[in-house]
Write a structure and sequence with these properties.
This protein is 44% helix and 14% strand. It has 335 residues and is α/β, with parallel strands linked by helices. The protein has one domain: Rossmann fold (3-Layer(aba) Sandwich), CATH 3.40.50.1820. An eight-stranded mixed beta sheet has the order 1-2-4-3-5-6-7-8, with helices on both faces. Helix 3 links the parallel strand 3 and strand 4.
Length: 335
């Protein structure tokens, strides 16, 4: 799934900062996670009848909630969830239309996703306050949840997060980005058609093989038209609606909307994007780091850390760094 995920993250402009580097600490085997996910994940019924696919491990609190980036489901966290579960309850889930979760009504903006997540946690009997962990585009969902339900959030970890108005700010540093993003975005549309054009059918399920035949079968099944419709629906509202909602919610809570809640931001130390010159790439990465520094100001206890040697998928390339950040926030929340 990683190859496909990198492409999809590129639609949100985040993968334009995703390094092709070798992971400094290889992720642990994920076969065990996949076995648990496929056997023990539950379908949680929401009040409107839809079902959300939720996988929880461990015991204790605060409960850690993992939200994956654009195009990724719970499987994106297979290198870190088991480790987090050694110290507390931790849950990953598939957003509406991903994995085995029911599709959701349009628009698939952050407000709708946050509503789904809140309803899922309530229906599953998982009480807050939570530690929210979001990768890439899920930063919008995590931050909006924290601004909307502040009493239900004990701390936040953001893994190379998407930022407010990032496309505009990054395109100012490298004007080619907008065209590259639109080209990648348009290339995914045939995969959302049902039936798919024959010449596109195989391309829509390309990706790294799963660690077991069962995992591979799930990933192929998970890349059906509904998955692409959900992903494209999220992308359609990202550039404006999500930003409008998030900025309004943030401003309504004042200059420190997260107060003194522990907040750790992890920023990729390496960047890569086909078609950009080294100078453009450096300029874009500088903007990326600046946006994350600004995001750290959401809390008086916010910090942004550069993860050297890692690209966009820090939780897969440097999983221990993410686990350590979650434990740091967990310890702070328990004090």
């Amino acid at each position: 799934m990683k190859r496909l995920s990198g492409v999809l993250a590129g639609l949100a402009a985040s993968a334009l900062l995703a390094g092709a580097s070798q992971a400094a600490d290889p992720p642990p085997p994920s076969v065990g996670w996949w076995s648990g996910y496929l056997a023990n994940a539950q379908l949680v019924r929401l009040p409107d009848g839809r079902q959300m696919h939720l996988y929880c491990e461990g015991a204790g609190g605060p409960v850690v909630v993992l939200d994956a980036g654009l195009g990724d489901g719970a499987w994106s966290w297979n290198s870190v969830q088991d480790q987090i579960a050694t110290r507390t309850r931790v849950c990953s889930y598939d957003r509406a239309g991903y994995g085995r979760s029911s599709p959701g009504p349009a628009p698939r903006d952050s407000r709708a996703i946050v509503g789904d997540l809140a309803a899922t946690l309530k229906a599953a009997g998982l009480r807050g306050p939570y530690i929210l962990v979001g990768h890439s585009l899920a930063s919008f969902d995590v931050r909006l949840f924290a601004f909307t339900y502040p009493k239900d959030v004990a701390g936040v970890v953001l893994v190379d997060p998407s930022a407010d108005w990032q496309m505009k700010r990054m395109s100012e540093a490298a004007p080619k980005l907008a065209a590259q993003t639109e080209a990648a975005y348009g290339g995914m549309r045939p995969c959302a058609e049902s039936p798919r054009p024959p010449e596109r059918a195989k391309l829509c399920v390309l990706g790294a093989p799963g660690p077991s035949p069962e995992a591979q079968a799930f990933l192929v099944e998970a890349r059906g038209p509904a998955y692409y419709r959900a992903m494209l629906g999220e992308m359609e509202v990202f550039a404006k609606d999500d930003n409008d909602q998030l900025v309004a919610a943030r401003e309504a809570r004042g200059p420190r909307p997260l107060g003194a809640k522990p907040l750790v931001i992890l920023t990729a130390g390496k960047s890569a994007s086909p078609g950009l010159t080294p100078e453009e790439l450096e300029a874009v990465h500088k903007v990326w780091v600046t946006m994350h520094d600004e995001m750290a100001g959401l809390s008086s206890r916010g910090v942004n850390r550069i993860v050297e040697g890692s690209g966009h998928y820090i939780h897969q390339e440097r999983p221990q760094v993410v686990v350590d950040a979650v434990f740091e926030v967990l310890d702070a929340a328990r004090r």
